[in-house]
Amino acid sequence: VAGLSDPAVPPSEVNCSGCGAELQCRDSSAPGFLPAVKYRSLSEGPAGLQDADAVCQRCWLLSHYGQALSLQLPPEEHRRVVSAALRRPPRHGRGPLLLYILDLLELPDPVLPQLPGLLSPDVPAAGVLVLGNKVDLLPADAPGHLGRLRRRLEAACAQAGLRGTPLVDVRLVSAKTGFGLEGLINRLQHSWKCTGDVYLLGATNSGKSTLFNSLLFSDYCKSRAPDIVGRATVSPWPGTTLSLLKFPIINPTSDRIFRRQERLREEAEKTEDELSSEERKYLNQLKKQGYLVGEVGRTFQQQKARRVIDFDPDMLSYSIDEEPRDSPKKHKEREEFTYNEVKDARWCFDTPGIAKENCVLNLLTDKEVKMVLPTRAIVPRTFILKPGMALFLAALGRVDYLEGEKPAWFSVVASNQLPVYVSTLSDADAVYEKHSRQEFLKVPMGGEERMKEFPPLVPQDITLKGIGATEAIADIKLSSAGWVAVTAHAEEKLLLRAYTPEGTTLVVREPLLPYISTIRGARIPGTAAYRTKKPPSLVENLKSKERR
User: Span 473-482, mean pLDDT?
Assistant: First the structure.
C-alpha cells in the first residue's frame, strides 16, 4: 500500500497540508511519506510540492478510504512537538492562549492534568479556555442537562489543578455540528481580541482538527485564508495531526464586530421554513448526526475575481478531416499571503493530539476504532437485570450483577454500532469464548486469529448503593469503549464485577447523565431490554415557530 521509497532523495522542506508533517519519500514508515514516483511527479510540476493539494499518502488514505498507515512514531514524539511549540519565546509581548479541547465522553480527561508539564516556567500561558467537545452526541436526560455538564467540566478543571495557568472559561461545543462555536468566537473576539497566538490542545480524538477546520471557515479567520490554508485531515484514527498547522486570526475591529453582530441578529430571526432548500437539507443532515446543532457562518468573505475566458481563434479553426483540439489546461497557481497580510499576524495553531495511556483504542485496528468511536447522536440502551445476569458491550467490556435484592437498570452509552448482549452469569464465560471468536460481538474483528493476540478481560469488583429508581448511582466507564450507568432502588446495595481488556483503565465515576435510564420506551416482552427512544434535536441559532 505504501509504495516504493527512495532513500537518496532529501526531504522537501514542504509540509503536508493535512497533518503538517514534512513531505518526503525516503521512509514509508515515517510521517509525511509520498511514494517516490508521486513525489517526483509533484516536484517536477509547475508549482512543485508547494501545490495546495499536496498531502502525504497517509492523509490521502485517511480522507478517501478511512485507512491509516502505521507509523514508527512513538507517542512521546507528539508530546515533544506540542511542548516545543508552547516553549517558544513569547511573540507580541505575551504568552499564548490555550484552547484545550476535552472530549466530554472521556471524563475524567487523562491528559488535562499533564498540561502544566508541557509549559515552560519562562513562557507562561496567558490563560486556558477549556472546551467540552462532542456535547451534540449526548441526549438531554432532564431539563438543565447542559448546565449540569458545564458544572462537571468546571469540576474536572479544578481537579486537574492547572498550576500557574489561569482558567479563562469553560464552554460546551460541538466542533462537528457547530453548536456553541459562534458563542466561542464572540468570547475570543471580545476578550482575547487579537493580542497573541492561540493553540488548540487536547488528547487524541478529542476533535481538535475538526474544530480547526470549523474556525478556518468562520469569522475567526482572515477572509482570504481558507483559499490558502489547507484543511486539517480529520479521522477517527488517533494521532492524525503530526505537526503544527495554522491559520491567521482576523483582527476584530469595531466595524467587523458590528457587521458580525448584524449577521448573527438577522440569522437569529429566521425559522427553518425560511431557509433555502439547500440549507434545510444540510441542517437535516446535522440533526441526524447530533442532538445539538448550530451552523457556523461567515461575515467576511474574500470577493472572487470574475473569471476571464480565454478566446483562441486558432483552436477553433480546423478542417473537416481534423478532430477538434482541446485547449491545454493552465495550471492554477497556488495563492500565497502577502507580506503585509502576515507581518504582524496572530496565528491559531492545531497541534498533535497527546496519546492517552491505558486506552482500549490503542489495542484496536483502524476499522475497529471507527466502530467504537461514536460519530452520531448516541441512543441510550437500557436493560433491567436481576442478580446472576451479565451484560457485554461488544467484546470490549462486561458488567456482572453478582448480588442484590431487586432488579436494577443498566443503561449503555456507547457507539450505536457496538452490540450489547445479555446472558446469565453461569453462561457468560462460554458466551464470551464462543461469540468473541465468531465476530458476533463485532469488536474486535477477525475471529479466532484476532482474539489470540487480544488481551483477556480482567475484573474489578464494585459496590454501589441505590438512590432511586430514576437516578443513576454511578457510571462504569469501560475505558474508551463507552459506559454503563447503573440505576437502583433507594438504599439497595449492589455488588457488581466489571471487566475491561488487560492494560486498559476502568473508571467508576459520578454519573454524567444521571437520569439516562428514563430515556426509554416500553419493555420488550420476554427480554431484559427496553425499546430505545431518541430525543429530538435542538437548533441553536434559529427562531422556533412558537416564538413567531
Answer: 96
